[in-house]
Amino acid sequence: MLPDCIQLIDNPAGKTFVVIDHPQVSARIALEGAHLLQCTPKGQLPLLWVSPDDPQLPGKSLRGGIPLCWPWFGGDRPAAAHGIARRAKWVLSTATEDSQGVYLRFDLPAACISEQLPGEPWQVYVEFRLGAGIDGQLTTTNVGAEPMKLSQALHTYLPVGSIHQARISGLDASCYIDALDGWTHKTQAGDVQFNAELDRIYYGNGDNLYLHAGDNSVVVERQGSESVVVWNPWVDKSLRLSEFPAEGYLRMLCIEAANAGPDARVLQPGEQHTLGTRIQHAD
Ligand SMILES: O=P(O)(O)OC[C@H]1O[C@@H](O)[C@H](O)[C@@H](O)[C@@H]1O
Predict the structure, then answer these.
(1) Please, which domain of life does this record's source organism belong to (predicted)?
(2) What are the tens digits of pLDDT across the range 220-240?
(3) Of all atoms in ligand 1, which is nearest to the CA of residue 155?
(4) Of ligand 1's atoms, which has the minimum distance to the CA of residue 201?
(5) Cα-to-centroid distance, 74 and ligand 1 (Å)
(6) How much distance in Å is there from the Cα of 135 to the middle of ligand 1?
(7) ipTM value for the complex
(8) Closest Cα to atom 2 of ligand 1
(9) Whose CA is closest to atom 7 on ligand 1?
(10) pLDDT digits (tens, 9 = 90+) for 21-49
(11) Could you tell me which of 281, 283, 278, 209 has the C-alpha nearest to residue 36?
């Protein structure tokens, strides 16, 4: 039985969404991918960017919100980029509310994992606490008998008024891998600013990050994460991306709490790891 503020709604194409209308927050999550698409604390601006080109079709990866990249990030394996989780059908297993907001837990069924990842006995669930901010935690357990490698990201799309004025602080002097320059390792000097395509894995840094973007400024906290992906497709890649408007790059950027690059983890039998992010408007 769901709390009154939470409804399950099917769109005409047969895709199911969890729709939340709570006194503290409104939000929408697709069951496919346990994909948080929208989250707006009441009386504030949206915390997440979502593409207006979203076709909302089953099997189509939605562009925006927080896609879950699991159990590998990017091209860490030759199969589908960013793993299997974002297109898989998750199950809403818990949904509660209190005066501060809502709590939801989604589980990826064991049958889906064994079918799509044969020989990889993972258990995984994601929890969202939504209210004045977003608190998302992706928890993975190795339930097998052998060590298994895990790379992952909470691929968070954040809105900005203008990419030209946006900057990220908290990464000064951090090392990063530049995916656009032969995966070379470099060191950040000062804030991250955007004036061309940018695709980087920062590592060795678990600090809070600040997106300075006028009214869209947010604080991004991380848990269990010593790496963060920062991404903006800029002009040319915007034209090639699925479900992305040509000028979308002007209004978004991604700050992705991750276990990527050198921060990929090896989970021993029985070991559990939680990757978390908390996002809230900056004062
Ligand atoms: O198009 P996708 O699979 O959603 O990926 C989007 C982007 O995701 C980012 O995390 C990667 O660093 C980029 O390289 C990638 O282009």
Answers:
(1) Bacteria
(2) 999 999 999 999 999 999 999
(3) 10
(4) 12
(5) 7
(6) 22
(7) 0.97
(8) 81
(9) 231
(10) 999 999 999 999 999 999 999 999 999 99
(11) 278
